[in-house]
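// run 5 | inverse folding | seed 20
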């Protein structure tokens, strides 16, 4: 079971990274097509970078989860998942 949880977290985070990259492309396209100006584009790109940095860290941590969760076992695995979730939110 812990491996399944870790795998699902990794999948979710990979989808999140892909979605963020897609947002970045949409901002780029909107700027090139003249839908948004340079100021708005720069602000959105800064927001994307601010989201990208912690997301990248979570992805790296999540790839080590299968090993950590298998060592910890059931209850501790849930506690670790809760810790990572709260850390990501806060």
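// decoded
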């Amino acid at each position: 079971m812990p491996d399944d949880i870790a795998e699902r977290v990794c999948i979710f985070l990979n989808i999140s990274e892909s979605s963020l990259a897609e947002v970045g492309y949409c901002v780029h396209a909107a700027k090139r097509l003249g839908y948004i100006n340079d100021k708005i584009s720069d602000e959105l790109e800064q927001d994307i970078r601010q989201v990208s940095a912690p997301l990248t860290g979570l992805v790296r941590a999540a790839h080590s989860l299968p090993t950590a969760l298998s060592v910890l076992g059931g209850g501790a695995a849930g506690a670790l998942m809760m810790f990572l979730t709260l850390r990501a939110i806060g």
